[in-house]
Design a protein that fits this description.
The chain is α+β, with helices and mostly antiparallel strands and 225 residues long. It is 45% helix and 28% strand. Strands 1, 2, 3, 4, 5 and 6 form a six-stranded antiparallel sheet that branches. The protein is globular, with a radius of gyration of 18 Å. The relative contact order is 0.13. The chain binds adenosine-3',5'-cyclic-monophosphate. Adenosine-3',5'-cyclic-monophosphate binds next to β4, α3 and α5.
């Protein structure tokens, strides 16, 4: 099952299964716990990671100490590759949000693979283009959308990654604290809380600690537009 998840990562999609297995065998598995930092923004980089299970947040810190989350990634996703394609320091800090199993691959090993498997480069380009598309959308939302709209959008986005269908709707075990959720939306904890309390009062969501049940996806989608 976990193998299937790893094989769905952009690095392995459409790769000959034998080649994929060989590449996976050349990667080192690691286990990390909530709160562990895999690397810091600004550090020198020499490896990338594929997530087998768990969740990783990618965040940046402003000079006055405020934090912003660029993304929360889950099984099948990859991070730590930007500093390879655009050589330079890490563009974000990677921190474990939910205990995770990862596969590590040295940048030098990936370069060697790309030379012999050029189609893999196409999949990596596709993953990068997808990320740029999401980032553009997040940037436009910061300018054009109000905070409740951004909260609705963040919940729907987390649902596509971590949601499971339950009788009442979609349960999203995001594992984020209220502070982290606010950092993902790019607003204060108080304002994000107020939006969530309003959604709960309208019957659109139910909050359950570090999870939320989306009870009315249609309304949330309309609010996110
Ligand atoms: P790297 O710069 O090596 O280390 C930080 C990683 O965070 C980066 O590679 C990407 O994998 C990831 N990352 C950076 N910016 C974004 C973004 N806007 N959306 C999703 N992931 C990102």
């Amino acid at each position: 099952m976990e193998d299937d998840v790893v094989l769905s990562a952009p690095l392995f999609v459409n790769m000959d299964p034998e080649a994929a297995r060989a590449l996976i065998a050349s990667m080192s598995p690691i286990e990390v716990s909530r709160g562990d930092v895999l690397f810091h923004e600004g550090e020198r980089a020499d490896r990338l990671f594929v997530i087998t299970s768990g969740k990783i947040k990618l965040g940046r810190r402003s000079s006055d100490g405020r934090e912003n989350l660029l993304s929360v990634q889950g099984p099948g996703e990859m991070f730590g590759e930007l500093s390879l394609f655009d050589p330079g320091p890490r563009t974000a800090t990677a921190t474990v949000v939910a205990d995770a199993r990862l596969l590590e691959l040295a940048h030098s090993a990936l370069i060697a693979w790309l030379e012999t498997n050029p189609t893999v480069a196409l999949h990596l380009l596709k993953a990068l283009a997808h990320r740029l598309r999401r980032t553009n959308e997040a940037l436009a939302d910061l300018v054009f959308s109000d905070i409740p709209g951004r909260v609705a959008k963040a919940l729907l986005d987390l649902a596509t990654r971590f949601g499971e269908t339950v009788d009442e709707g979609i349960r999203v075990a995001h594992d984020l604290t209220q502070e982290e959720l606010a950092q993902l939306v790019g607003a204060s904890r108080e304002t994000v809380n107020k939006a969530l309390a309003d959604f709960a009062a309208r019957g659109w969501v139910r909050r359950e600690g570090r999870a939320v049940v989306l009870l009315d996806v249609d309304r949330l989608e309309r609010r996110a537009r």
